[in-house]
């Protein structure tokens, strides 16, 4: 697992160079706009709603002593909760809406890096609408799973001592589902929905590695939100294509071994 996470991290190497070489920036303009707009909404929500949520949480403190301190803590907790849930929504909304723009990017990278893979494997032909619906289905599925896992971890992270474990786990969960969505832009051409889910489950480390950088970039003011999709999707495409090629070669070897086992041996 750890080795695969490192491979997912290394896939970011030369991503910007590849984007420039294949002239992919034009495909990213709309997704970058969506990302910037939705990211701005999240930061405005954190700034505008954390005080209100903090006062609401502070309502459970009935005593006068320590009320101001508890309100400050509750405000911080409210802001963190909005940030976590906001970033969860951000990933899946932006990824789903960007699907029709990201699939052509992944296909160009595939033709450039692995022309044999692109020519030999029968691809699924899908329209922009089908790609959007596929993106919505994948991301709604991932959103529900991520919320189901993240909310208990979020509450546990407020417990002193326990948060040393739950906070990194919360980050890794978000990273995994971010990488999942990025990998599916390539898998969409090769596999149906259920097969893609199973593929990523078997490649968790690669998805986590890709998602770690994705999540880290979101903490960079403005520039991170703008560049996160182009760089992460390019890196995920490289990783996923490598895995697909390895699987293709494995299938070919298995077929050759099967053919050899059925070939009658000539008597000497």
Q: What oligomeric assembly is this protein in?
A: single chain
What's the N-to-C terminus distance? 49 Å
* Overall tally of domains: 1
What's the number of extended β-strand segments?
0
Q: Tell me roughly what share of residues is in helical segments.
A: over 70%
Regions with pLDDT < 50 over 5+ consecutive residues? none
List keywords for this structure.
268 residues; mainly alpha; 10 helices
Structure write-up:
The chain has 268 residues and is mainly α. It has one domain (2-42, 90-249). Helix content is 83%, strand content 0%. It is built from 10 helices and no strands. The protein has helices at residues 2-10, 15-21, 25-58, 67-113, 115-120, 128-156, 163-190, 193-201, 204-217, 223-262. α9 (204-217) runs antiparallel to α10 (223-262). The model has no long low-confidence stretch (mean pLDDT 82).
What's the layout of helices and strands?
Layout (H helix, E strand, L loop, with lengths): L1 H9 L4 H7 L3 H34 L8 H47 L1 H6 L7 H29 L6 H28 L2 H9 L2 H14 L5 H40 L6
Kindly summarize this structure in a few lines.
This protein has 268 residues and is mainly α. It is built from ten helices and no strands.
């Amino acid at each position: 697992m750890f080795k695969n996470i490192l491979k997912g991290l290394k896939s970011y190497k030369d991503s910007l160079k590849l984007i420039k070489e294949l002239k992919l920036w034009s495909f990213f303009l709309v997704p970058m706009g969506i990302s910037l707009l939705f990211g701005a909404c999240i930061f405005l929500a954190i700034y505008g709603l954390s005080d209100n949520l903090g006062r609401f949480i502070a309502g459970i403190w009935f005593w006068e002593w320590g009320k101001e301190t508890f309100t400050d803590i509750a405000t911080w907790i409210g802001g963190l909760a909005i940030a976590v849930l906001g970033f969860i929504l951000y990933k899946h909304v932006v990824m789903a809406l960007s699907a029709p723009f990201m699939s052509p990017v992944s296909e160009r990278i595939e033709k450039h890096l692995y022309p044999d893979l692109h020519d030999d494997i029968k691809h699924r032909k899908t329209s922009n609408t089908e790609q959007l619906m596929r993106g919505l289905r994948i991301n709604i599925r991932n959103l529900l799973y991520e919320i189901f896992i993240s909310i208990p971890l979020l509450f546990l992270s407020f417990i002193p001592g326990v948060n040393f474990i739950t906070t990194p786990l919360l980050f890794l969960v978000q990273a995994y589902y971010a990488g999942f969505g990025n990998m599916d832009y390539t898998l969409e051409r090769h596999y149906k929905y259920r097969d893609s889910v199973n593929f990523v489950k078997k490649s968790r480390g690669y998805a986590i590695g890709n998602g770690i950088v994705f999540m880290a970039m979101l903490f960079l003011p403005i520039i991170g939100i703008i560049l996160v999709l182009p760089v992460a999707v390019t890196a995920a495409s490289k990783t996923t294509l490598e895995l697909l090629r390895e699987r293709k070669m494995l299938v070919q070897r298995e077929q050759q071994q099967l053919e050899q086992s059925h070939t009658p041996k000539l008597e000497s």
